[in-house]
Design goal:
alpha+beta; Alpha-Beta Plaits; 3 helices
């Protein structure tokens, strides 16, 4: 048995299903070899977007092959426009094109239907042993 305390496991959960309509921005990218400053800028953008009125949440995924997907959720088109045109975000976008990305696509969509599922914790019947 180890004397080291166990690191707490942070549950992985998707962003909740919001009441439609709302908007999503799906940013799919392949990063370049040059990543100087990327982590700091990415963390700053995650903090900055939280201040946008109408921002609902964000999810990230990265494949082992290097494809990254970020999905941002926004209550309305105005919130998405505020984020897209934010001065600090615009600087990060330009730097991304110049340094950090080999390629990317951005898809923006209005969500008209949304639902979710979470498995309930099942209780074990002690008599089953």
């Amino acid at each position: 048995m180890s004397d080291h305390p166990k690191t707490p496991v942070v549950p992985v959960v998707p962003v909740e299903a919001f009441e439609p309509p709302y908007y999503v921005a799906v940013f799919t990218s392949v990063r370049s070899q040059e990543q100087d400053g990327y982590g700091e800028t990415s963390a700053r953008m995650e903090e900055l977007v939280k201040d946008v009125p109408g921002y609902l949440g964000m999810e990230h995924a990265q494949t082992p092959g290097g494809l990254g997907i970020t999905v941002g959720y926004f209550r309305d088109a105005d919130a998405l426009t505020r984020w897209r045109t934010d001065a600090e975000h615009r600087v990060a976008q330009r730097r991304g094109r110049a340094e950090w990305y080999e390629s990317y696509t951005l898809h923006v969509a209005k969500v008209e239907r949304s639902h979710g599922f979470t498995r309930a914790e099942t209780r074990r019947d002690p008599r089953a042993d």
